[in-house]
Amino acid sequence: MQHFEPDTLVRNPVGNPVVARVVVDGDARSVWNVVGDFAGFNKFIPALSHIDMTGTGVRSVRKKLFKDGNVVIEQLNSHDNERMTMTWSLIYTSLNIGNLWALMEVVPHGANQSVATWTIMGQPYTGGQEDVPAFEAFLQGFADDAMSNVQALFA
Q1: Within 6-52, where are the H helices?
Q2: pTM score
Q3: 88 within 8 A of 76, measured Cβ to Cβ
Q4: Mind listing the pLDDT tens digit for each residue in 19-58?
Q5: Which among 79, 123, 130, 131 is placed 20 to 30 Å from 54, CA to CA?
Q6: Could you tell me which of 71, 27, 77, 34 has the C-alpha nearest to residue 57?
């Protein structure tokens, strides 16, 4: 009889955090209602065709379907409406992304303004250390575009 130890493919990534931060002309609660909606990222990521959800709240899973045919499946790890923070991890993707963890947070910033920050830590699925800069640039560009769209929603 073989002996098995528990294992998982979901691991915390090793790498540099990619941070996309924008000042938004909207109160923090209104901005959080957009970026804190785990099922609603298609509101500010136009490349998404739609999102399918399984469950609600922490441990729920979203399947993001992109217009180009790519798929990303992620699980919500934490969601705090009071602190306006949430984290999630990658379970599966058709993109060249290995492990990925992300944090979204919103903080008030002056009168009727807020700061929305999307922090991503990830690793490419294939390739070597020489591929990390291009991978991080891809994540940075994606997150920057999305957060610019959040700004535009409140302009």
Answers
A1: 28-35
A2: 0.94
A3: yes
A4: 999 999 999 999 999 999 999 999 999 999 999 999 999 9
A5: 123
A6: 77
